[in-house]
């Protein structure tokens, strides 16, 4: 992802900057039209002759102002499991991210239970099961095409009975414009609320950084159905430029909580905005 911005800076080191070109380049970096225009306006306002380093500095300051300073990793609750619902459109990396998050929490000394509530895709259940066995983390699953809400319901009981710190619920991929699937998601949400009225405590939307502005649209639509408490941005190791997480924060106020940097279970980390800005620029 850093490569994109590096080449951007190299292109704008000459004194006669083409502002439209710069704005287009920032948008291409998934920073969104609003933020890109703000950055360009800010640069134009500055009387001094700009060169590449200034552009980096101004862009960095803008991004810093938007992103929260402190990382917001998941923390446990006292006396009950913290319920985390993992949602998103198809193929963004929900199952992989759920397994990675389970691994990270487990490594941090927490007790985790997994709910394989993607009953639609048998491979997703198998995939999560492999991780659950490998990581030695209990998992609850249902029959193929069974009711995902009842899988979460049962998994909650197991998590509660065994004194787990976290219950992570992987859900099926769904397009935000498919009414029935979104209703199903609301049902999962509602059912979890019956076990503990404050549950789910976290709703994390998984977005694929390589899909650019589609990810913003997904966040917007899912957030209307169920308020999101955070985003997991995957595939930042690929062609994803990372700017999208800044745009989601700016447009919707939803922070990025974790980032995926590869297919391996360790290639996942709590989002740290300071580090992100340094690496991005
Ligand atoms: N390079 C890279 N690949 C990733 C990352 N996260 C997930 N993937 C890959 O993306 C593909 C889809 O991941 P899944 O976890 O199956 O996606 P999903 O959202 O659960 O899929 P559905 O259940 O079909 O919606 C897999 O090949 C993963 O290995 C990442 O951070 N980087």
Automatic annotation (TrEMBL):
One GO BP annotation of this record: SRP-dependent cotranslational protein targeting to membrane
Q: Which gene encodes it?
A: ftsY
Q: What does the function comment of this entry state?
A: Involved in targeting and insertion of nascent membrane proteins into the cytoplasmic membrane. Acts as a receptor for the complex formed by the signal recognition particle (SRP) and the ribosome-nascent chain (RNC).
> One Pfam match, by short name?
SRP54
Q: Which residues form the AAA+ ATPase domain?
A: 80-227
Please verify whether the record's keywords include Transit peptide.
Answer: no
- Top-rank lineage group of the source organism: Bacteria
What InterPro entries has UniProt attached to this entry? AAA+_ATPase, P-loop_NTPase, Signal_recog_particl_SRP54_hlx, SR_rcpt_FtsY, SRP/SRP_N, SRP54_GTPase_dom, SRP54_N_sf
Q: What protein am I looking at?
A: Signal recognition particle receptor FtsY
What UniProt keywords are attached to this protein's entry? Cell membrane, Cytoplasm, GTP-binding, Hydrolase, Membrane, Nucleotide-binding, Receptor
Question: Which membrane topology term applies here?
Answer: Peripheral membrane protein
Query: Partners and quaternary state?
Result: Part of the signal recognition particle protein translocation system, which is composed of SRP and FtsY.
Q: Which organism is it from?
A: Prosthecobacter fusiformis
* UniProt-annotated location(s): Cell membrane; Cytoplasm
Specify the enzyme's EC class, one word.
hydrolase
